Amino acid sequence: MAIQVPTELLDGCVLGVLTRQDFYGYALTQEVRQRLPISESTLYPVLRRLKKNGWLTTYDEPFQGRNRRYYRLTRTGQIQLTVIREEWGDFSQAVTTLLEGDQADD
User: Is residue 1 part of a domain?
Assistant: First the structure.
């Protein structure tokens, strides 16, 4: 897939994954990568920004002598996800209409 994912959509994808359960960074990257071609170096700045905005919180859990940092969706993050979902619906419909070209209503 050569299409670049806009920042707000990537934010929404991460928030959406975190509605199912908390994830540590690497596992979260793998979840998103199942559908979108992103790297860990792309995702970690997104996680920092989402945390800074108050949409995520973090906590550490020990694992094999090290700590894993887990990410959890906040109430504010749930609200932001709702906003992104609504905006995505409008945007997706507009792009689909434009891409279909000859089928668009005049």
Answer: no
Whether 50 has a pLDDT exceeding 70, the answer reads: yes
Q: How many angstroms separate the CA atoms of 80 and 96, rounded?
A: 24
Cα–Cα–Cα angle for 38, 80, 59, nearest 5°?
70
Counted residue by residue, the chain has a size of 106
**Residue 82's closest CA among 18, 16, 14?**
16
CATH of the domain at 23: 1.10.10.10
Q: Find the domain containing 32 and state its range.
A: 7-97
Counting residues of the chain whose pLDDT is more than 70, the rounded percentage is 92
Is-contact 72 57, C-beta < 8 A?
yes
